[in-house]
Structures are given as C-alpha cells and as structure tokens.
Amino acid sequence: MAIAEKIKNSMEKSSWIRKMFEEGAKLKLEFGEENVFDFSLGNPDVDPPFQFFEQLSKMSTVKEKGIHGYMPNAGFTNVRKSIADKLSKDNDTQIDFNSVVMSCGAAGGLNAIFKAILNFEDEVIVPAPYFVEYGFYTSNHNGVLKSVKSNADFSLNIENIKNALNEKTAAVLINSPNNPTGVVYKEEEIKELSLLLSEHNKKGRVVYLVSDEPYREIVFDDVKVPSILDAYNHSIITTSYSKTLSLSGERIGYVAVNPKCDDYNNLVSGIILSTRILGYVNAPALMQRIVSELTSVTVNVELYKKRRDMLVEVLQKAGYEFVFPKGAFYIFCKSPIEDDVEFVKRLQKYNILAVPGSGFFGPGYFRVTYCVSEKTISGSFEGFKKAVGEL
Q: What is the per-residue pLDDT across 199-229, written as a single tens digit (0 to 9) for each?
C-alpha cells in the first residue's frame, strides 16, 4: 500500500472547502474570473494594516547576530510578554508570559494542545456545525471527536453537551465567533457551560475548555466575545493572526493557558514539548517579532461589516433563510432543498461557489463567505435568485 490507511480515509473525507476551490478554478478558466462568484474559501482579501508593513520593513534591516536562529520552543520571551500583557488587559485574569506558547497558527496550536492532553481514545466534545479539520486534528493524537447538536439558532445546547460528558472526555472545544455560522456565543452560555464542566469535574477527571479564537477581533454591532479565561479555571485558548491581521500565509499564532488550570506547569510544558515533537520546533522568528508590536492593531473590520450587510441584503432579497451573523465572515444559509450538496451544485450552474453544510457536519445548510470583493457580492444576486426560484 502506497500510503497509510488513516490518511487515505482522511483524504476521502477531506474538506469540501478545498473541493469547491478546485471547482472554482475550473469555472474561472471556462468563464473568466470576473464572471464567477466565489464564496467558498475563507481567505482574507482585506490587506494587512499599514503598521504591519512598517514593522516588516523595520525588522528586515535588523542584523543582530543570531536573529534568525533558534529560540526557546515556546517563543521569544519579550514576544510572549507583550501578548500576555494584552491578554491581561482584555481579561480579568492575570496572564504571565509563561502561560503563552507561540504557535504556527491556530491549527498548530490545537495540534499541540491535543498532543499534550489526549490519551488513547480520549474524547473531545464539539458543538456542530464545526470546522471539519477539528476531526483530523483530534485523530492525529489518537483522540475521538464527539459532536453534539447545537440549538436551531446555533447557540450552545448545554443539555446535549452534558449528555455527551463521560469518563473519557478530555476537553470541550468551542469556536466563537464561529466558522461556519458566524454566531458569537453569549456570556450566559459560556457561564452555563463553565458551571456544567465544574460540576462534572467533581466526579474525578478535569475537563479542559479549549477555545479556538482566530476570529475574536472580527465582530460587529458592538458585540463582545465573552472571556473563556475569566469564566472557567481549566481553560486554554488558541488563536492566530490569520484573520485579525490578514496574515494567513505566515502561520503565526499562540496558545494561552489559564494559570488556574489543573496541573498547570505540566500542561504548559507538555504543549511546549508537543510543539517540538510535532516538528514545528518554534513559530516563525520574524513573524513573532512583528506581531509583538501589533497587539492593539487589527485589519479594517468595518470593511467586513459592510460586506456582511451587502451579502445579507442579497440573500434576503433572493429568498434565503439564515441566522444573522455577528462575527467572523461567514453566513450559514438554510438550503431550499434537503440535499445541501445538490443545491450547491445548482448554484454552480449560475457560477456561484458555496460550501455544503454537510462539510461542516451541518447538513441542510450551505456556507458563503463575505471576505470577497463587493463586486462579487453585488454580481451574485441574479444567480442566487434563479437558483432558489427554479425550485
């Protein structure tokens, strides 16, 4: 056999997002890029802020000895301090630099966390719909991803999470603002979840609450993302600068461990060791230095809000149903027919690319992203209207 059975199976289940990306490439060759309305890939098209380019230019001229060499696996101490200071400012929990581990994006952070906390066939509970690669990350470390259904408005169904908890549960994984729904979990939901986990912990094993937060700064309408670190002692966050600074290709992010976590020292040390074992060794040196100077900077979020409002109007006028998104840059629409994959194929007839909700374990829906040009959004109206109209 040429490749491992596990990888072969994973390839068969691989992300619908990439499949649609490939379909888009074909359509663009056939009809011209300007005539294809691609809402499939969450690849930020808003430029990084000007401060990024200033820092990049500045750092490129520094010629100190060893500046591009290895550093401690957790990252440069001064970088971790600057991030810890921001976290302490944004939360009521005091974060020390020792709690911060620089990572190769949020994906690298999640893999390091799961490597550190999962025993064989330990379970990670996640509300569905969810980002499909969570399953691969969990499986990487011999864990089992256990999905639970969310409420109709995609808020947390605490009762479903409660029923899924057992002696094999190692963590609950949440993502807010959420991909694919754009939902931001409310403070009351997070408090209720934290209370549930605290009660469960009295039975023995402590369950970690892991929060994947790459969209934390991409929120609208004065919405605030509740603090996981304040709500629950045994919490771990991971994030990246892929969305907040439009640096998805630079693979830079971090993990932050709540200092009140159970077995805190071993947990942090385990994540640091896992970073090395997984082959990341350390997060990119140049990007670490740059982001440490940009902790209070984000992309122009108002551009995303404007595009959200445009796409909301297009979809509403065309007759689609969806939960109004408060963050990230996605809308999760109800498919007009039960078979979401079939409906996405219908959209392709009108050169519209979307991702079936089944790809996010949310069958009966489809996802569109508004990190696209305004021309793409406005030009898609007739196609969306015709696709639903023919039904």
A: 999 988 999 999 999 999 999 999 999 999 9
Q: Which residues pair with 125 in a beta bridge?
A: 146, 172
Say if residue 347's pLDDT is above 90.
Answer: yes
Q: Which fold has domain 64-291?
A: Aspartate Aminotransferase; domain 2 (3.40.640)
Structure tokens at 227: 């603090």
Return the CATH number of the domain spanning residue range 5-48+299-389: 3.90.1150.10
Strand partners, 100: 256
Q: Strands 100-103, 355-356: parallel, antiparallel or unpaired by DSSP?
A: unpaired
Q: Do domains 5-48+299-389 and 64-291 have the same CATH topology?
A: no
Looking at the DSSP assignment, which residues form a beta bridge with residue 255?
101, 238
Question: pLDDT by residue (tens digit) across 66-78?
Answer: 888 999 999 999 9
Tell me which amino acid residue 140 is.
N
Distance between CA atoms of residues 155 and 181, nearest Å:
10
Strands 100-103 and 253-257: antiparallel
Radius of gyration of the chain (CA): 21
Separation between Cα atoms, residue 366 and residue 36, nearest integer Å = 18
What pTM value is reported for the model? 0.95
Domain boundaries, the chain: 5-48+299-389, 64-291
